[in-house]
Design a protein that fits this description.
The complex is a heterodimer of chains A (about 400) and B (about 425). By secondary structure, chain A is mainly α. Chain A contains 17 helices and two strands. In chain B, α6 runs antiparallel to α7. The chains are: A mainly alpha (about 400), B mainly alpha (about 425).
Chain lengths: ~400, ~425
């Protein structure tokens, strides 16, 4: 009997759920890869078989109780097959579907980018233990000062810097109230939202009046990175994306590395989880929190500036329209992790893109409006704990008092 | 407003004169910090007033910076609010105009009192209800639906039905957040923010082109609801009904203030709500159902906001379009109202009046454009509102100073001399 147990253990060591799951995820990627340029299989059979194996591996892992890796493999298999399907179609005559899908993906990235910046900004702040409801206001500030700075200096890069400076300054004000004066952080964040609505609205009317912001010349807009303008699926989706979209990808990776793979990231997290302990080992809780909150304001402002000088090329009052709150939702939905927040931002961006697309179809336009509520419904479900609870950093929202 | 401040000042004077007598040597003069701390303990009257003054002062500096005279601007705003009606020397056409302006201000006050109470009630249970806006929208949608359907129903009954349905809808909407907090501990701030936006898009959908409740009257080309039945309009008791006079809903709001005070201070429910608000652990130890109170307090909050939505619909809006829903800010201003009013009934009334006056006085319709541009003034309101919320939360600063002082000189504080330092 004991040998039987030992055999099971040995088998587990070779084919542990984690390894099988990881293999499943890789197979999903492989399924997609088969349809890509070097091999470019025209029959769907090969990717289908590989994807099926990935899904099977995922199911096997799920039955052994490893939910995260299991679902990962299942999703990877399904996604791999779906993308392979798109890719094989893109190479052939059925270009129309591919264009629709690739346009959707491109537009998803456009909508997801401001959310990503703000959500990552919020991640820094909340990981340090300061709740940031003011993301919306910091974004709006960035949107205004981005276009104002660009208009004044004639250079989008300087405009972006000015936007980040303004967002950082607003965040610094919030930080003083939240950290040193120990104001309720929700109250302070709400105040920041009102304030920035008033400040940007006031300055906008005072400086630009009813004419609106001036048209930006092509060189004053944040440039698109042109990789390819050909008609295939990938060129349509990724061939001509804005510089700030690519930078957002980089930001997510850099944030992951910083927060989870460097000593500074460890300090940041320890301040957010147990400030007293962090203080005891000589980490300055106040300094860490000030830096994190200010940085979150700068990043949110970058997201706002992307809206004004990278996407819409103009500013109007309250132009962020609750995107800061969607970013907050993405952060929570993504469980305060960079990849999770980015994934949630993509999901919410996709729902916006789909809503916009549905809006152009006559009988669907009213449902397109309803579709906009999806991110919030999903987040509500997520905080309710139906699909895996979202648990914030332990000291999130609690002011720290030195002893 | 001037009335308000005078009253507050009078009360403060009293407090200062009475309190320092106890246990102090003769001729002892309390320092500024001690005075402030006394105000704090006396119900914190000085912080809200100071906060509002500082906010208006900074607002004045902003006006000055953009090249206008702050004094004449504030004067014009004040005249736009109609509060000059209270001065006996205003007469003739000025008085008639002031009356019309004041009616508009009080119309806005009605909604702000109720949504302010929605935020304040949850605060007293230790919860931050950011969802007043969503609860207000849900109340508006339900009341416009009830009041525009069932045509031919008895008028007063129809009105009551519309208000009750709106109240229940608001209570249910807030109850979701309360339920989630009570059962799985989901933070109410997050869930109410989400519920706000769900209500926003839900409202935008039901009245959108092709939406289920959109009016078919104009060939279905306008995103607006049906008009409510003629006999569901609330009676106007001051001013002309055709010129948006003041409706009886104002008394409902005043009644809600009384209900709020009575519920919190004279019922078992109110006691347990406040106990949970002070310290949930202690309340639980004392045998009070904390989870149940979270749900109940949130639902009651939602009822206040839902009634606000109903009164605005039945009192002066009579229909609602998508733009109204998207532009409405009542539930957010309510946060400033509750904070400035320190979650008390009286405070909420005055804070609601202040913000309603500010909103009305800076609106395009009421501000003299030769003095200050109304489109700028609207943003000035937002600015002042933000400053108020920011500074109201910072009264910790005063208390902190007070505590520092007490720690330095243990013999001279509010606590007995022998009390051990907490840290």
């Amino acid at each position: 009997m004991s040998t039987a147990v030992q055999e099971t253990v040995a088998l587990d060591r070779v084919a542990s759920p984690t390894r099988v799951g990881a293999a499943g995820i890789l197979l999903g990627v492989l399924a997609f890869w088969l349809a890509l340029p070097p091999l470019k299989t025209t029959q769907l059979a090969w990717p289908a078989v590989v994807a099926a194996v990935a899904v099977a591996a995922g199911v096997w892992v799920l039955r052994r109780g490893s939910r995260r890796v299991g679902w990962g493999a299942v999703v990877s298999g399904v996604l791999g097959l779906g993308l392979a399907l798109l890719a094989t179609h893109a190479g052939r005559t059925n270009l129309e579907t591919a264009v629709v899908w690739s346009a959707l993906i491109a537009s998803m990235l456009v909508y997801a980018t401001p959310l990503t910046y703000a959500a990552i900004g919020g991640l820094f702040s909340e990981r340090s233990g300061v709740v940031n409801i003011g993301l919306e206001g910091m974004m709006l500030t960035g949107a205004f000062f981005g276009i104002w700075g660009t208009d004044r200096t004639g250079n989008w890069a300087l405009g972006l810097l000015i936007a980040m400076g303004a967002g950082g300054l607003l965040a610094l004000v919030y930080a003083v109230f939240a950290i040193h004066l120990r104001t309720d952080q929700i109250v302070g964040g709400t105040a920041i939202n009102f304030l920035s609505l008033g400040i940007t609205g006031y300055l906008f009317i005072d400086i630009y009046g009813s004419n609106g912001t001036p048209d930006l010349s092509h060189s004053q807009q944040v440039p698109d990175i042109v990789i390819s303008r050909s008609g295939n699926f990938f060129a349509q989706a990724f061939g001509e994306l804005n510089l700030l979209i690519w930078m957002a990808f980089g930001l997510v990776i850099a944030t992951y590395l910083f927060v989870f793979r460097t000593p500074w990231g460890l300090r940041l997290r320890s301040v957010g989880e147990h400030p007293r302990a962090a203080d005891t080992v000589g980490i300055s809780v106040f300094r860490t929190r000030y830096a994190a909150v200010t940085f979150s304001g700068m990043l949110s402002a970058m997201g706002g500036a992307y809206l004004s000088i990278g996407f819409v090329h103009s500013f109007n009052q309250n132009m962020t329209e609750g995107r800061g709150f969607i970013a907050l939702a993405a952060l929570i939905f993504g469980k305060w992790r960079p990849a999770g927040a980015f994934g949630a931002a993509l999901l919410f961006g996709f729902s916006s893109a789909l809503a916009q697309r549905l809006g152009t179809i006559p009988n669907w336009s009213s449902y397109a409006v309803l579709f906009q509520a999806l991110p919030y419904v999903l987040t509500l479900i997520a905080v309710a704990g139906v699909i895996g609870r979202s648990i914030p950093p332990a000291a999130d929202g609690q002011p720290y008092q030195k002893q | 407003m001037s009335d308000d401040e005078q009253r507050l000042e009078a009360q403060e004077q009293q407090v200062v004169e009475e309190q320092p007598e106890a246990g102090k040597p003769a001729g002892y003069a309390p320092s500024a910090v001690e005075r402030l701390a006394l105000y704090q303990r006396a119900g914190g009257l000085v912080t809200p007033v100071l906060t509002a003054l500082i906010a208006f002062l900074i607002g004045g500096v902003v006006v000055l910076a953009s090249g206008s005279n702050p004094l004449s601007t504030y004067r014009a705003i004040f005249n736009g609010t109609g509060l000059n009606w209270l001065f006996p020397w205003v007469s003739g056409t000025d008085r008639a105009l002031a009356a019309i302006n004041l009616q508009q201000t009080l119309l806005l006050t009605t909604g702000l009192i109720l949504t302010g109470l929605a935020v304040a009630f949850a605060f007293r249970c230790g919860m931050f209800n950011i969802g007043g806006q969503g609860q207000y929208i849900v109340g508006s949608i339900m009341s416009v639906w009830v009041a525009s359907s069932f045509v031919g129903m008895n008028g007063p009954l129809h009105i009551v039905l519309a208000i009750v349905v709106a109240a229940l809808a608001g209570g249910l909407w807030a109850g979701i957040a309360g339920f989630l907090k009570a059962t799985v501990g989901a933070h109410e701030v997050i869930s109410t923010i989400m519920l706000n936006w769900i209500a926003y898009w839900l409202g935008s959908w039901v009245f959108a082109l092709g939406g289920p409740l959109q009016s078919k009257a104009l060939g279905g080309s306008v995103p607006v609801s049906n008009d409510i039945a003629e006999n569901t309009h609330l009676p106007v008791f001051w001013g002309d009904a055709l010129l948006q006079g003041l409706h009886v809903g104002f008394f409902v709001a005043l009644g809600a203030l009384v209900v709020y005070w009575l519920t919190l201070n004279r019922t078992t429910l109110g006691f347990s709500v406040r106990a949970v608000g002070f310290n949930p652990e202690a309340a639980r130890y004392g045998g009070i159902g904390v989870a149940r109170n979270y749900f109940v307090a949130m639902a009651i909050s939602g009822v206040f906001a839902g009634v606000a939505g109903a009164l605005d619909i039945l009192g002066w809006e009579f229909r609602i379009n998508v733009n109204d829903i998207q532009a409405s800010q009542v539930g957010f201003i309510a946060i400033a109202v509750a904070l400035l009013g320190r979650n008390t009934a009286v405070g909420t009334f005055f804070a609601a009046l202040l913000f309603a006056a500010l909103l009305n006085g800076t609106s395009t319709r009421h501000l003299d454009p030769s003095v200050f541009r109304p489109d700028l003034a609207g943003n000035l309101t937002l600015l002042i509102q933000g400053l108020v919320v920011l500074f109201v939360g910072a009264d910790v600063l005063v208390l902190w100073l007070w505590n520092q002082r007490r720690r330095l000189r243990p013999g001279r504080g509010a606590t007995p001399a022998g009390a051990a330092p907490s840290a």
